[in-house]
Amino acid sequence: MKKTYALAFLLFQIFAVTYYGYLRIHNAERVKQPRSFGDTGEYLHNANLPILSREFWTDLRAPGTALLWKTVNSDPERIFQLQLYLSICAWALLAYCASQALKSNWLKPLLFSLILAFSLSRDIFMWDPFLGSESIALSFMALFLAASIWLIQEWKTYKLVFILFFAVGMVLTRDTFAYLLLMVALINLPVFWRSPYRSKALALSFAFVVIFAFSSQLAELGLRPYRAILMNTALRIYPSNEYTDYFRQHGMPISERLVEMSRNPEAGQKFAVNIALTFDDDQAAYRQWAKASGYAEYLKFLWFFKADTFQKVFTETAGQSFFPDVFYYTATGYRPIIKDARLAEILYPTRFGLFFFFIANLLAAFFVPIFWRKREVNGYIPLLMILLSYPQAVLVWAADPNDIARHSIAHNVLMRLGVWLLLFFVLDFLLPSLYAQLTFGNRTKNPA
């Protein structure tokens, strides 16, 4: 019986992935050409640098995207194909690993199908023709989740190698993933401290901290924190009297001319301020301050205005942080794969994003003590996916006030997928006890 089911499930998986791949590839054929945007030139510049050069690893953008683009000679059409097929493979592998973690044979094909259908949501597959880091970052994220689910079923050293490989891939495509790894590393320690896997969990946490430090060092060498300070000065600090006064008292050279420009409602003025801070001769003293102590002072600023830091993702940018509309980035010829709007909304809820965020986090908080008491390991990953969505949203808000919606895609995908995984793992956890109760009830009614 088990062999028959295993064969039937394998055939189902082959059919489902084949059809899934057909939908993705057929839909991709409608795209007229890959979509470029303001940062595309920087990624292409990095991809054209020698891989062994220092500049390649410390350029303006994290090197992971350029590293993969090099394999197709930075040709936009081939980049599109690379990102498409990598995404298909990554989400198919995640569907396989997640379904294998379930005990119930009835739920396995349902979860396998659901994850494939989930990845047909616009906010996931729309990035394949987009010449940026989003598609590759989401693919590495899916592979990292697959490896994490695989590892937590049985802690083996060779599985740690896979999870670390995908973790490095994540942080080399987007710097913010390094902070996610740091948060997971800190949570792993108390969770697994009294488990038989304490030493392996400690090693994994240490490796995540090392990856975080490595990513931070590359970012610093590439002056990415420095550029973030310039953008925050132009778009967040100068437009506010209170923030400007704070930094004036903490040594920032203030340009009254640029302050006035930043508060001009005319479109483009704030970005003109950023350009002026970057290139104008009279801003040399400011740039020297920003490179020397700007990042440290900005961190102090975030803590000093901690109420703003922790609340403005709700009061100022809730729409961008928790239900981002990124349709603007779709390539010409984009068509949804899931035609039914109601089905698309069920798979990937967007209309009530902030409400969904609170419900998801309350649901996760409710199950934390249950899974902890029962030592149910499957719940650990989806709980982290949901509960870490808020600190990631705060991180995105604090890091760069420009284009928060696009930068918020990753944690929104994690949260929504985490809810689906949590529901399936809860069902898988409850079904045996429900079955036992039903069986016991039938036996008591029919003692013979």
Describe the structure concisely.
The chain has 24 helices and no strands. With 448 residues, the chain is mainly α. The mean pLDDT is 91.
What this model shows, in words?
This protein has 448 residues and is an all-alpha fold. The protein has 2 domains: 2-222 and 320-445, no CATH class; 225-304. The protein contains 24 helices and no strands. It is globular. The two termini are 28 Å apart. The model has no long low-confidence stretch (mean pLDDT 91).
Report low-confidence residues grouped into runs of 5 or more: none
Q: What summary fits the major beta sheet?
A: none
| Continuous helix count | 24
3D shape: globular
Number of strands: 0
How many structural domains can be distinguished in the coordinates?
A: 2
| Helix-strand sequence | HHHHHHHHHHHHHHHHHHHHHHHH
Mean pLDDT: 91
Strand content: under 5%
Distance between the termini: 28 Å
Short descriptors:
single chain; 448 residues; 74% helix
Topology of this structure?
Elements lengths: L1 H27 L11 H8 L6 H4 L5 H8 L5 H25 L6 H12 L3 H4 L8 H20 L3 H17 L2 H17 L5 H24 L2 H14 L3 H9 L6 H7 L6 H11 L4 H21 L1 H10 L2 H5 L18 H7 L5 H22 L5 H8 L1 H11 L4 H4 L1 H37 L3
Helix pairs in contact: 1-5, 1-6, 2-4, 5-6, 5-8, 6-24, 8-9, 9-10, 9-11, 10-11, 12-15, 12-16, 14-15, 16-17, 17-22, 20-21, 21-24, 22-24
